[in-house]
């Protein structure tokens, strides 16, 4: 999207927010002159900022705009755009202590309709169960081979080693527990005719109460907001799973950083600053296994947010980057995450307090958020083959509060110098 379109989109969202604030929620009922407000109420701005009605309006407008962008993206995307043969593609599946689940990704990739596809499982040298299972899968399928990681210790190292050894035109990357659609590679290769990177949607499978809570959290905090962030800031998430990347991208921006917890976000920002063209694909999504316990949910998000903080701090350390517009958009997206997280940490207590005084406001605000959430789930039922409407959507305020607390914990821990290590969730083989 051109810069002009981004500015127009930002202006439109600002107008929608102002209309919601001044009209539906009547935050400012009597507008007098600017100076009268300032001198009569010195803390008028702070009162407005802390007004829950303001945040309900902002949340509903942001999510509604994001939902419209999602629908617009679906409308523009041609699900029949498929390329079934041509350039060579190597799908890399790094595994670590995942012998029970690696067959999901490998067997779904084996069923791919793209002909010129090779599948490489890369195992850690000390992970004998995964090596044994990888050997079995390689013996069962002609498309599959396995190798040992020569740069052990991180997912980034495994990916780098596999990329170094490969001579394929395109590198595709998937986690061991993902389930790529048979047309995913073919659809991604069609997108690469005009782009450098094709990122396919990856969503947690809502199989239980905690898993469904993670799914709705993913919709409200990641999937939908990213549509708005990309429209305004131009930041396209690259990631290191369910993504196809031209080899020329690695030649230009380098391989993955093996020292960071979130090598995917670091790589995303480097690609953004190098003006790589990222195409986000919404059809033929890739399912992945969600955390099954609150402990795993918490640990996984602590690692994610810790990596974000680290990437942000690294960029901030070089003040010269402030002259780079691409850097500024990347930085704003990260800082926005931290600010929103701090506000989310008080979601449930604030809702309880406000409901006592303004039950109608809370009812309207939640109705808007729940309506957008369930509408998105309905679209996923149609386009992504999710099923039904489980009751976990009622836990959205709890999920938002917990996520906010994770952000607060991570930021405080980072400031006091406490390091966060890699966290791997328990996965169920089936």
Could you explain the architecture of this structure?
- The chain has helices at residues 3-24, 34-40, 44-49, 52-76, 102-110, 128-140, 155-165, 184-191, 209-233, 247-253, 263-273, 294-316, 325-344, 347-357, 359-383, 396-415, and strands at 89-95, 117-123, 144-148, 170-173, 197-204, 243-246, 278-288.
- The protein is of the alpha/beta class and 430 residues long.
Largest sheet: 7 strands, mixed
How many runs of DSSP E, i.e. beta strands? Answer: 7
Low-confidence stretches: 1-49
- Taken as a percent bin, the fraction of beta residues is 5-15%
The CATH architecture classification of the domain at 89-293 is Alpha-Beta Complex
* Strand order, largest beta sheet: 3-2-1-4-6-5-7
Number of helices: 16
Percent of residues in helices: 55-70%
Transmembrane segments: 7-25, 54-75, 326-344, 350-370, 391-416
GO molecular function, one term: glycosyltransferase activity
Subcellular location: Membrane
Pfam families: Glyco_tranf_2_3 (PF13641)
Short description, anyone?
This protein has 430 residues and is an alpha/beta fold. It contains 16 helices and seven strands. The chain has a domain of 205 residues: Spore Coat Polysaccharide Biosynthesis Protein SpsA, Chain A.
Structure keywords:
alpha/beta, globular, disordered N terminus, Spore Coat Polysaccharide Biosynthesis Protein SpsA, Chain A, seven-stranded mixed beta sheet, glycosyltransferase activity, glycosyltransferase, 430 residues
């Amino acid at each position: 999207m051109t810069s002009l379109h981004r500015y127009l989109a930002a202006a439109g969202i600002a107008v929608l927010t102002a209309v919601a604030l001044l009209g539906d929620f009547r935050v400012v009922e009597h507008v007098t002159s600017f100076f009268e407000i300032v001198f009569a109420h010195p803390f008028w701005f702070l009162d407005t900022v802390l007004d829950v009605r303001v945040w309900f309006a902002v949340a509903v407008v942001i999510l509604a705009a994001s939902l419209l962008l999602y629908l617009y993206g679906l409308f523009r995307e041609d699900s029949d755009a498929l390329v079934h043969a041509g350039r060579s593609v190597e799908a890399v599946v790094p595994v670590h202590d995942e012998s029970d689940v690696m067959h999901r990704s490998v067997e779904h990739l084996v069923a791919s309709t793209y002909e010129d596809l090779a599948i490489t499982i890369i195992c850690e040298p000390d992970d004998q169960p995964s090596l044994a299972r990888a050997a079995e899968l390689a013996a069962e399928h002609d498309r599959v081979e396995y190798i040992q990681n020569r740069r052990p210790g991180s997912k980034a190292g495994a990916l780098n080693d596999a990329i170094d050894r490969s001579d394929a035109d395109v590198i595709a990357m998937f986690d061991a527990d993902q389930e790529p659609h048979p047309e995913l590679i073919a659809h991604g290769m069609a997108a690469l005719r005009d782009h450098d990177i094709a990122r396919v949607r990856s969503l947690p499978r809502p199989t239980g109460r905690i898993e469904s809570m993670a799914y709705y959290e993913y919709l409200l905090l990641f999937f939908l907001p990213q549509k708005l962030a990309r429209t305004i800031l131009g930041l396209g998430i690259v990631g290191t799973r369910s993504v196809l990347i031209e080899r020329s991208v690695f030649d230009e921006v380098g391989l993955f950083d093996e020292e960071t917890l979130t090598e995917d976000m670091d790589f995303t920002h480097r690609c953004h600053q190098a003006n790589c063209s990222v195409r986000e694909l919404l059809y033929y999504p890739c399912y992945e296994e969600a955390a099954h316990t609150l402990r795993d949910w918490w640990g996984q998000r602590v690692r994610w947010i810790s990596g974000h903080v680290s990437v942000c701090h690294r960029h901030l350390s070089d003040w010269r980057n402030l002259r780079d517009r691409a850097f500024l958009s990347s930085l704003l997206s990260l800082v926005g995450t931290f600010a929103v997280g701090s506000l989310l940490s008080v979601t449930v207590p604030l809702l309880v307090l406000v409901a006592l005084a303004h039950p109608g406001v809370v009812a309207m605000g939640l109705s808007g958020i729940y309506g957008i959430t369930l509408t998105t789930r309905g679209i996923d039922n149609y386009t992504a083959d999710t099923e039904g409407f489980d009751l976990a959507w009622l836990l959205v305020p709890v999920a938002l509060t917990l996520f906010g607390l994770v952000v607060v914990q991570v930021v405080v821990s980072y400031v006091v110098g406490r390091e966060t290590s890699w966290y791997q969730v328990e996965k169920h083989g089936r």
